[in-house]
Design brief:
The chain has a domain at 53-136. Helices cover 70% and strands 0% of the residues. By secondary structure, it is mainly alpha-helical. It has helices at residues 3-22, 28-48, 58-67, 74-81, 85-95, 110-135, 144-165, 173-182, 185-194, 198-201, 204-226, 230-238, 251-263, 271-275, 279-284, 288-297, 299-308. The radius of gyration is 20 Å and the shape is globular. It is built from 17 helices and no strands. It starts with a helix and ends with a helix.
Length: 311
């Protein structure tokens, strides 16, 4: 089922359950009407392929387009990246981070940085820069607090995804970090739309329900629109499905595990109970001891990546 069909199916489900979910802080009829109208708008946007975040910088889209050619050279990429100082700084920061530069030898030349970190990490830097610009957009100033919280969550999951992926066989850790950075982009999109509906935005329970029901499908649709790899879009769309079946570990498994671990970072003792029944941990070969090791002993690596991503 394509994203638009899933959205429309979800719209009907949400509408039929709306009275139980959202009619708590406003009248039943008003809550149902507001929620239904908002979800219908989301479904229409996805169906029409108009899923774009506001104020997304042109340079990020140009980076995406040039990287669609896997044979493109570092010099050509560097010309585009170098046209925006903020993006160039982010690429250099990633290339010099403890996680990606084990030698510790500083890199100051952009082309060398791009050659070192590879295409996926240039994509990650572009997304990081683009969302940093989005957070500063004047039209989104009323929700800056919420956007900042989502960004901190994104950088934590991204850094954890890289740490997990680099320690598990069969997973591309760079793809995992990119997926982690975008795992909650659907929430950003919902917030960007919802603040234009003050009555709905003020209803915490209604917003929570819509976020839970829609953010993964919307995030997947956004990433498909941006032209990222299918496995990244699938990971964002499926990472909350803890019963997902599979044989080989993949990026989706890493995102599932990273999102759970992020919720218990610094509370390692509470993680074990929340691992039970989550198939992704088993496929990645992670038990509580290994997870605790990543959370405790990779603190500097995770912090360095978060800083490089602009947290």
């Amino acid at each position: 089922m394509d994203p638009a069909s899933r959205m429309m199916a979800g719209e009907l489900q949400f509408a039929s359950q709306g009275a139980d979910k959202v009619a708590l802080t406003v009248s039943e009829g008003e809550a149902n009407g507001i929620a239904f109208q908002f979800v219908a708008e989301l479904a229409q946007e996805v169906s029409a392929g108009h899923v774009e975040l506001p104020a997304f910088p042109d340079v990020a889209m140009r980076v995406r387009k040039v990287l669609a050619d896997e044979n493109v050279g570092a010099e050509q990429i560097a010309r585009i990246v170098g046209s925006e100082a903020g993006l160039a700084a982010r690429v250099l920061a990633l290339a010099n981070s403890a996680a990606l530069n084990r030698s510790g030898k500083p890199i100051s030349e952009l082309r060398s940085a791009i050659s070192r970190i590879g295409h996926n990490n240039v994509r990650t830097a572009a997304v990081s820069f683009a969302i940093s610009q989005l957070r500063r957009a004047g039209e989104l100033r009323p929700i800056i607090k919420e956007l900042e919280a989502l960004w901190k969550e994104a950088t934590m999951v991204a850094a954890l995804s890289h740490a997990i992926g680099s320690r598990c066989q069969g997973v591309n850790s760079d793809e995992a970090m990119l997926g982690g950075l975008m795992h909650n982009v659907g929430k950003i999109y919902i917030l960007a739309r919802a603040h234009k509906h003050p009555a709905l935005f003020a209803d915490v329970k209604a917003m929570g329900s819509i976020m839970r029901s829609w953010h993964s499908n919307i995030g997947k649709a956004i990433i498909e629109n941006w032209g990222f790899a299918e496995q990244i879009a699938d990971a964002v769309g499926e990472h909350e499905n803890i019963d997902r079946r599979g044989v080989l570990p993949d990026v989706t498994d890493v995102l599932t595990v990273a999102a759970i671990m992020a919720a218990f970072f610094g509370q390692e003792a509470d993680l074990e109970l929340n691992m039970q029944g989550v198939r992704a941990f088993t496929r990645l070969g992670l038990d509580n001891e290994k997870c605790a090791h990543i959370m405790r002993d990779c603190v500097d690596e995770i912090a360095a990546l978060r800083t490089a991503l602009g947290d």
